[in-house]
Design brief:
Elements (H helix, E strand, L loop, with lengths): L5 E6 L7 H13 L4 E7 L13 E5 L3 E3 L5 E3 L6 H19 L3 E5 L10 H10 L4 E7 L5 H10 L2 H8 L2 E5 L7 H4 L4 H5 L1 E3 L18 E6 L7 H14 L4 E6 L6 H13 L3 E3 L5 H6 L3 E4 L3 H10 L3 E3 L8 H11 L4 E2 L7 H13 L2 H8 L5 H21 L8
Parallel strand pairs: 1-2, 1-6, 2-3, 6-7, 7-8, 8-9, 10-11, 10-13, 11-12, 13-14, 14-15
Antiparallel strand pairs: 4-5
Helix pairs in contact: 8-9, 8-13
Length: 400
């Protein structure tokens, strides 16, 4: 372990979309400092497109794509999935031992993809027991029954009990309590902390000179949100002239044939369409209404920027987004349309209503606190203090 700079290693789950790497980057940007180095291990194919602050770097492992809840295949290289996982595991293990972090933060899955993090977790406990190991969980994983069954089958509770120092839940316990919903054992519950939601940077923008309002439509990575984009364009196609402009962000993983078809339709409607933007916060900050799905990161961006939002949550293969939409709507923060009920007419009705009077949603967001980064910074300060205490201890204090 380092005796000078405090080293943090972050493992970012990377098998689908942008959510995990965007959340990881948001945390890293806040925790990095002159005395803190952060190294991110990820297979995200677009991690190099993000602006990386000084003190933060990443190691890229071969990317994997989630075909189903059980099947993962390499994103690019044409090798057997087991061989790809083997390559990833070796890179993760070698990187971790070389970097020798003071803090290891694992994203979402306690053992990593197909157990690839488990060997290094055991190494920490055997060879570096003073390293703090944290599992970071988004607020909602899936419905309670499915999550409990999966975690019991994969023995995640035992892993958390034996190999982890803490569990951080990136949400509010009063809104959704995974300790209760997912049946955390008492000893795991005792090491679980609710950080609050993770705020995003709020960019400074000039007051718009335009008279027309702006609707921004975004579907995250783009791998599964085509119906949202298609329905929105149908709404415009069926409605003729509308009193607002549109920016559509399709995501870098939308298949090219779908992007081409959408772009042709968007051109006829005078809709601006782009596949990816580096600083999506700037685009959302200019919006009068955001339309999207209900992923964790999208919700955090909306809450940070205090933008009225209409979401269409995916409900398959996981019910995570639908549950989040229900929780957030109950708090008055958003409105939503169920995935199997979305249509151009209902979308138009919701859009016009929210553009006309966004005040109830803005008031609810004004009253909503986002404490995630402050909590993590406070925990990091405590980790730094403990590291310094160990370094300053007399040699005989460390003898058994």
């Amino acid at each position: 372990m380092s005796s000078g700079t405090f080293n943090i290693l972050m493992y970012s789950h990377d098998t689908y979309g942008l959510g995990h790497i965007r959340r990881t980057m948001a945390i890293a940007r806040h925790l990095v400092s002159p005395e803190v180095n952060i190294l991110i291990v990820t297979g995200s194919p677009i991690v190099g497109r993000f602006s990386v602050p000084e003190g933060v770097d990443f190691v890229r492992v071969p990317g994997m794509i989630k075909k189903s809840n059980k099947v993962y295949v390499p994103h690019s290289i044409k090798v057997d999935p087991k061989k790809a996982i083997g390559i990833r595991k070796k890179i993760i293990t070698a990187t971790t031992k070389a970097f020798d972090p003071d803090l290891f933060v694992v994203d979402k899955v306690p053992v990593g993809l197909k157990g690839e993090v488990l060997p290094i977790l055991r190494w920490f406990r055997k060879c570096r027991p003073q390293t703090d190991i944290v599992l970071g969980l988004r607020d909602i994983l899936n419905d309670a029954e499915s999550t409990r069954a999966e975690w019991k089958r994969k023995k995640y509770y035992e892993v958390l009990r034996d190999l982890y120092s803490e569990v951080w839940v990136y949400g509010e316990q009063e809104m959704f309590d995974p300790v209760k919903e997912y049946g955390f054992p008492e000893d795991v519950a005792a090491k679980t902390h609710f950080t609050g939601y993770i705020p995003r940077r709020v960019p400074k923008i000039r007051a718009p000179r335009r008279k027309e309002k702006l609707v921004v439509v975004t579907i995250g990575g783009g791998g599964d949100g085509y119906p949202v984009l298609d329905t929105y364009l149908k709404m415009l196609e069926q409605n003729g002239t509308v009193g607002f402009r549109t920016l559509m962000i399709t995501g870098p993983f939308l298949p090219s044939n779908m992007l081409d078809a959408l772009a042709e339709r968007a051109r006829k409607l005078n809709v601006r369409i782009v596949p990816f933007v580096k600083n999506i916060e700037k685009k959302l900050a200019s919006a009068d209404l955001v339309i999207g799905m209900c992923g964790y990161n999208t919700m955090c961006e909306i809450l940070s920027l205090k933008k009225p939002a209409l979401v269409i949550p995916r409900d398959n293969p996981r019910r995570e987004q639908l549950i989040r939409a229900e929780v957030f709507k109950e708090s008055g923060l958003i409105d939503f349309i169920e995935w199997n009920k979305v249509n151009p007419e209902l979308m138009r009705e919701k859009v016009e209503s929210m553009l006309e009077d966004p005040s109830p949603y803005q008031q609810a967001m004004n009253d909503f606190s986002m404490t995630g980064l402050d909590f993590m910074r406070a925990r990091l300060e405590r980790f730094l203090e403990r590291r310094d205490e160990r370094c300053n201890a007399r040699p005989e204090d460390n003898e058994e």
